[in-house]
Amino acid sequence: MDRLRSSAYGKLNLMLDITGRREDGYHTLETVMQTVSLRDTVEIRFKKGGGIVLRCDLPYVPSDSRNIAWKAADAFLKAAGLTRSMEIDIRKTIPVGGGMGGGSTDAAAVLRMLNRMFGFPLTLEQLDAVALTLGADVPFCLRRGTYLAEGVGEVLTEAPAMTDCQIVLCKPRVSVSSKSAFGLYDEYEPKTHPDARAMLDALASGDLDRIAASLGNSFEPPIAAANPEIAAVRSRLLELGALNATMTGSGSVVFGLYGDASAAHRAKDILRQAGWRAYCVHPVGSGR
Ligand code: ATP
């Protein structure tokens, strides 16, 4: 096989609690992550000579060795002791800098695809180890589905599957880098601590109202305070019938849960008319 194309799905943090800070400065967290149907497309073609060449359809995303998908290909070849030239084409739909793990999922797609294209030279454990060197969210993106992540995001436990529903997600014009998000969080009081256990119990019950009531993100109060547009998008989702809404990751994407498909599509249309990028998506289950 010398050519393969794959979908790379984005994620949402159903809840995210910053639990502390390690001596090395990294924040520790508890978060329940959910794969959703919004996806990039990644295509790999082996070729003769030229090393790893990457193209991305968004001009503001780097297409050289700074792209995390490029790094994934390089790390895979080194871990498997292989050399091969290839072209990687990425078509982005997942908003960049939105807290949806767009880069991480592209990297995971490259790892999964290369392992298949080379006839599975790496075990799942070895693939996980390579994934973790690329970023804390990459091992989750290899798995997909619903997972509790602890530590700095790398300790994964499978959680009860998310109840099927409609999710409207909206990208405010502002983007938030993870670095500035941690800075804003550290300075802000009072801190909030969404409850991971409550979310896991709600997922186990399958009750969408309980899942909605357990949404939350420690980053949201400080980041929404600094970026009123984020608070405005959340209010709009609630006015438009969301059971509840919160921000994903370190922002800036905000999402709302809906039990009713027509209300969700109407909300997405109204947000688009107001000039925002908005999508109606659904949860995607485990794919390993
Ligand atoms: P996370 O939720 O993991 O914090 P994010 O969704 O906020 O991530 P990304 O969209 O993954 O953020 O990308 C953030 C930065 O990474 C951008 O500055 C972008 O230029 C760079 N980047 C490198 N490779 C990629 C890629 N394949 N796709 C998107 N961004 C990439």
Describe the protein's architecture and organization.
By secondary structure, the chain is α+β, with helices and mostly antiparallel strands. Helix content is 36%, strand content 29%. The strands form 2 sheets. Strands 1, 2, 3, 4, 5, 6 and 8 form a 7-stranded mixed sheet that branches. Helix 1 packs parallel to helix 2 (102-117), helix 2 (102-117) runs antiparallel to helix 3 (124-134) and helix 8 crosses helix 9 (228-239). It starts with a strand and ends in a 7-residue tail after the last strand. Bound molecules: adenosine-5'-triphosphate.
Features:
10 helices, globular, alpha+beta, binds adenosine-5'-triphosphate, four-stranded antiparallel sheet, seven-stranded mixed sheet, 29% strand, 11 strands, 288 residues
Structural class of the secondary structure composition? alpha+beta
Rg of Cα set: 19 Å
Average pLDDT, rounded to a whole number, is 96
Order of H and E elements = EEEHEHHHEEEHHHEHHEEHE
How many distinct beta strands?
Answer: 11
Helix content: 25-40%
Ligand inventory reads: adenosine-5'-triphosphate
What is the end-to-end distance?
Answer: 20 Å
